[in-house]
Design goal:
alpha/beta, Rossmann fold, 2 domains, 35% helix
């Protein structure tokens, strides 16, 4: 499974039983920063198969603390459910909290949003770009898992382009319009209008 690469390393794998099914968790590290990332795989596949995947950026507030001011936790659960229902798939869980600005800066951005800014304005007010995420490690992770062709669960066209730029064959995009609440509709409208995310506009009314 391990691939030679000067930037990344595969660490280990283990069984991960969950309430949705039994996954395998795989650990990876960026060697320059010691940043740790994981992949969850489910089922088996042959080389050349089109595999359903999701790239999910860490969101402590949504994924673990059940926040409804974003759709992250809802999408994480839905993606894992989809993978189990399809019998195989991969979720890449990247430690890029707050679109890359980190947890504490995300809380600062939340405070600015509480006082009227949208997510993009808040990040920029703090001196950051609207989205600082880096997807280059995805190629290494997918290579280790023998995945070359994917059906990507996303509403974010930047992820599609990032994978294609890395040489991953994105055969299809699968929308993941899930977890829309009264508290996050404004956040989702901002992602649509300012970041190009693709949501069904009828769901955001």
């Amino acid at each position: 499974m391990k691939q030679a690469d000067p930037l990344y390393d595969y660490i280990s794998s283990a069984k991960l039983p969950t309430r949705l099914g039994q996954f395998t968790i795989h650990g990876f590290v960026e060697l320059a920063t010691d940043q740790e990332h994981v992949a969850l795989s489910y089922g088996q596949w042959q080389p050349g198969e089109v595999i359903p995947i999701r790239i999910h950026s860490e969101c402590l507030t949504g994924d673990a603390l059940f926040s409804t001011r974003c759709d992250c936790g809802f999408q994480l659960e839905k993606a894992l459910q989809n993978i189990v229902e399809q019998g195989k798939g991969v979720l890449l869980y990247l430690r890029q909290e707050g679109r890359g600005i980190g947890l504490l800066n995300k809380i600062r951005a939340y405070h600015l949003q509480d006082n009227g800014m949208d997510t993009v304005e808040a990040n920029e007010h703090l001196g950051f770009d609207a989205d600082l995420r880096d997807y280059r490690i995805c190629k290494y992770m997918l290579d280790c898992l023998k995945v070359k062709k994917v059906r990507l669960m996303t509403n974010n066209p930047r992820k599609i382009q990032a994978l294609r730029d890395l040489g991953i064959d994105v055969v299809e995009r699968t929308p993941i319009d899930h977890g829309i609440t009264q508290e996050n509709k404004g956040y989702l409208r901002t992602k649509t209008q300012k970041l190009g995310h693709e949501f069904d506009p009828h769901l955001l009314k």
